[in-house]
């Protein structure tokens, strides 16, 4: 069973598309992801105490979120890192850097119009996909049994 970490953009259904198609094909994969609920992610550190300055609230929550992200990236066999057009996904770029540093293969998923700003991220990726279906096809190929 392959462990696939899904990172990046949270404003579209790309995760569900990949998970549904993989399930339909009965691929030997399990999926994990960062918290994709924006409000609860921003509030992840609130249990540690109220912060009077927004920077410290974000800092505290980022560290709590990093416990999950770091652990799941370390445990995965492969990551898919999605960059959308609407927002800058600095967290996704950071996840790609962690994958590269750990020697974890990753696939980037994004449109052609952001190839240039992602040239270094794509340069370390094992594949660049433009659609969730392309990601599923790569997953199908790499999980083939002999």
Question: What summary fits the major beta sheet?
Answer: 5 strands, parallel
Strand content: 15-25%
Please identify the structural class as seen in this structure. Answer: alpha/beta
Radius of gyration: 16 Å
Strand neighbour order, sheet with most strands: 2-1-3-4-5
Percent helix among the residues?
40-55%
Jot down its keywords:
146 residues, alpha/beta, Rossmann fold, five-stranded parallel beta sheet, 5 strands, globular
Describe it.
This protein has helices at 14-24, 38-42, 54-75, 90-102, 119-124, 132-142, and strands at 2-8, 29-33, 78-82, 106-109, 127-129. It has 146 residues and is an alpha/beta fold. It has a domain at 2-36 and 76-142: Rossmann fold, CATH 3.40.50.450. The model has no long low-confidence stretch (mean pLDDT 95).
Topology:
Blueprint: E1 2-8, H1 14-24, E2 29-33, H2 38-42, H3 54-75, E3 78-82, H4 90-102, E4 106-109, H5 119-124, E5 127-129, H6 132-142
Parallel strand pairs: 1-2, 1-3, 3-4, 4-5
Task: Give a quick summary of the entry.
By secondary structure, the protein is of the alpha/beta class. It has a domain at 2-36 and 76-142: Rossmann fold, CATH 3.40.50. It has 6 helices and 5 strands, in the order E-H-E-H-H-E-H-E-H-E-H.
């Amino acid at each position: 069973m392959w462990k696939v970490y899904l990172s990046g953009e949270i404003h579209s259904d790309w995760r569900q598309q990949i998970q549904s198609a993989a399930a339909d094909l009965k691929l030997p994969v399990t999926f994990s992801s960062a918290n994709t609920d924006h409000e609860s992610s921003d509030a992840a550190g609130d249990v540690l105490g109220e912060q009077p300055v927004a920077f410290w609230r974000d800092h505290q929550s980022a560290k709590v979120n990093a416990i999950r992200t770091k652990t799941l990236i370390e445990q995965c066999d492969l990551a898919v890192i999605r960059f959308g057009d609407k927002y800058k996904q600095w967290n996704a770029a950071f996840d790609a850097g962690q994958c590269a540093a750990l020697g974890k293969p990753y696939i980037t998923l994004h449109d052609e119009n952001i190839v240039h700003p992602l040239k270094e991220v794509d340069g370390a990726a094992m594949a660049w996909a433009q659609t969730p279906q392309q990601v599923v096809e790569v997953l199908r190929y790499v999980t083939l049994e002999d």
